[in-house]
Structures are given as C-alpha cells and as structure tokens.
Design brief:
The complex is a heterodimer of chains A (184) and B (178).
Chain A (H helix, E strand, L loop, with lengths): L4 H9 L3 H23 L2 H18 L9 H21 L2 H19 L6 H15 L3 H13 L3 H8 L3 H19 L4
Helix pairs in contact in A: 1-2, 2-3, 2-4, 2-7, 3-4, 4-8, 5-6, 6-9, 7-9, 8-9
Chain B lengths: L2 H13 L5 H13 L1 H26 L3 H13 L4 H11 L6 H18 L13 E6 L5 E8 L4 E8 L19
Antiparallel strand pairs in B: 1-2, 2-3
Classes of the chains: A mainly alpha (184), B alpha+beta (178).
C-alpha cells in the first residue's frame, strides 16, 4: 500500500532518501506544470523545478506538518517562479525568446490533425494574454485551473485570504476573457 | 449592477465549487435560463480547458528519471561552508528585519555626532572644522567645512595653480571651481 505524503515526509526527516525520491516522483510534473504556467519557458521552468525540490530537501527537516506537503512545495515553487518572472521582466529580450520557444513547441502539438487552426490561435493568444497578467494574478489562475486547488489552499500557498484569491481570480479571468473574446 | 452582472461575478466561484448550496442553486437556475450568462460560463470553461490542455501536454514530456538524476547529483554535491551560514541567515525567523535594523544602526552611528556634540571630548564639537587634501594627480583638491551648530556642510572643489602646493599657507589665488 502506498504511503501518504505525511508518512513519506516523516521518513525523509529520518534521513530516508528513497522517501524523498517518492515525493519528487509524485509531484515533479505538477510542480513543473505550475512553474511553466507562470514562466512560459521550458528551460527556466525545469531549472526552477529542480531548485524547488532542492530547497524542499534542504528544508524538509524543519517542515512541521502544519500544512500539507503539496501546499508547502507549491509555496516554494510559486515564490521561486515569481522571483524568476520578475527577473525575466527586467530582461524583455530574453522573455521574447522564451515565448517564441514555447510557440515552436506548440507547433509540434498542432501537427495533430484533430487540432484546428482556431484552437491554435486561441492557445497562442492565451499565452500572450497570460503573460500580460501580474505574477500574483497569474499564480491564482494557474493554481486554480491547472491544479484545481481550493481557494483556501491557494490562499495558504500565496499567503493571502480566500477573499483575495476570489477577487484576483475574477480579475484574471475577466482580463483573459476581454483579450480572447475574438477567439472564444 | 443588474442580475446578470451579479451572476457573472459568481460563475467562476460556482465552477470552482466555492459557493454554498443556496448560491449554487441561484447561479444554476439563472444560467439555465439566460443565454448571455450561459455563454459567459462556456467562455470560462473554454479558457480553463485551453490552458490546462496546453500545460498538461508540456508536463507529460518531463520524465522523472533524468529529473531525479540531476536533482540527486545536486543534493549530493558538497556545499561550501558559507552557503550553510547564508541559508541559516536567510531562513532565520524575522530575518526580514535584519536589513532595516542594520540601516537604522548605521544611521544612528552616523548621526551620533550631531545629536551628542562633544562626546569625543570636544573634537567633533569644533565649529568650522575644515580638511584640505589633493584628490588626484592633477592638482585638484577638496575642502570640507562643517558648522555643527547649524549642521551645515560645504564641500569645496578647486584646482591648484602651479607651485601653489609649495605655499600652502597662502590663500588660493584662483577662485573655487564651483
């Protein structure tokens, strides 16, 4: 029977590397997905994901279990991704290159005959519209849409109230809706 | 704000399962009978789906084995001693207060002379304290004059004439540069 996250955390704290490996295997794609949603660059997302798990490993000894492991690791991931995004914003040339890289990757997906041009346009414009959001607004929409987390969990991860999560999400969706109305 | 605007604000939380049962029922009933609000609901769902499918497809390509190998290598690398200390400092409780506290301390030390004139036995309390020194190899000098009572500081940059340094007691023949 598979161990729960909290049991694995206890084993990690006792020095079992395999327990941390199990936690990493459970969450590496989810963490990567959230970070990719914020950064929109695969290489940066991979680097920040590695950094997230590296820091989690270093700090797991002090993890008290007051929150669940996934909210804890998402908090580390989102904070690192927001920092990286601010650095990215300060270097717009690098940012443009990273966006182009992602659109190229989407061409590979679009080779599927069932994906039509309209959907491709929607995806491309969705990337642009999401990049125009602030890191905080982007974080709520990614955590909600990708991970399906509750407002309470998102608030815990971002260090804000459920009401703030709700209003940020409403604002972010409205912005996306306004920018994508031609493609919806 | 009309009923449709109110409902459209609640469609997101409704789809997210964050409304109580009474509010859920109110939104569901309205959306069922209002084409504009139904369209708004479908647009939110379409955006969510597009975003999710894009990222899920990207994340599915990330294999665990190479990810773990790179992570394990990094974990097992010996760390320099100063990184351990830096981590402790950064993760120390309330470490965010360390920087402003340090700045406040430095400001306090710097302004000590102003608030407590004479604490060094009268040296700092002297009014009209001046220092003259050459600041480069081209004969330019700086003079500082401070008046403690009114806390006025004058910084005076000027250029020495040839041979002037040999007669330092004389007043400078040229006027101040500015």
């Amino acid at each position: 029977m598979a161990l729960s996250d909290s049991e694995l955390v206890q084993k990690c704290q006792a020095g079992e590397m395999t327990a941390f490996q199990e936690l990493a295997s459970r969450y590496h794609q989810k963490v990567y997905m959230v970070i990719l949603g914020l950064l929109r660059n695969r290489e940066d997302a991979l680097e920040v994901s590695q950094e997230t798990f590296f820091r989690a490993f270093r700090k797991i000894g002090g993890f008290q279990g007051g929150s669940s492991f996934y909210t804890w690791i998402y908090r580390i991931a989102v904070n690192l991704a927001i920092d990286a995004q601010r650095r990215q914003k300060r270097n717009p040339l690098e940012f443009r290159e990273s966006m182009d890289g992602l659109l190229e990757s989407q061409d590979e997906v679009a080779r599927d005959p069932f994906v039509d041009v309209h959907d491709r346009e929607l995806r491309e414009n969705l990337i642009k519209a999401i990049n125009d959001l602030t890191p905080e607004h982007k974080a709520v929409i990614v955590l909600r849409t990708i991970e399906g987390l509750s407002y309470k969990d998102i608030g815990e991860i971002l260090g804000c109230s459920e009401g703030t999560v709700m209003s940020r999400l409403h604002y972010a969706r409205k912005k996306l809706h306004d920018k994508l109305s031609a493609f919806l | 704000m009309n009923e449709c605007e109110r409902i459209q604000e609640s469609i997101g939380p409704w789809l997210d399962g964050e409304l109580n049962s009474a509010e859920c029922e109110r939104v569901r009933t309205h959306v069922g009978s209002c084409p504009a609000c139904l369209a708004a609901q479908q647009k939110i769902e379409k955006i969510d789906l597009a975003l999710r499918s894009d990222l899920v497809a990207q994340a599915a390509k990330l294999e665990f084995a190479p990810f773990w190998r790179a992570l394990e290598r990094r974990i097992s690398e010996p760390r320099p001693w100063y990184q351990e200390w830096r981590d402790r400092l950064v993760s120390a409780p309330r470490s965010a207060w360390a920087v402003p506290a340090l700045i406040a301390l430095l400001l306090a030390v710097w302004s000590f002379d102003s608030y407590f004139p004479g604490w060094r036995g009268g040296v700092a309390a002297r009014s009209g304290f001046a220092a003259v020194d050459s600041i480069d190899a081209h004969g330019r000098s700086v003079a500082l004059w401070r008046e403690n009572e009114t806390k006025t500081t004058v910084i005076w940059l000027y250029e020495e004439q040839e041979g002037e340094h040999e007669t330092a007691e004389e007043a400078p023949k040229s006027g101040p540069a500015f």
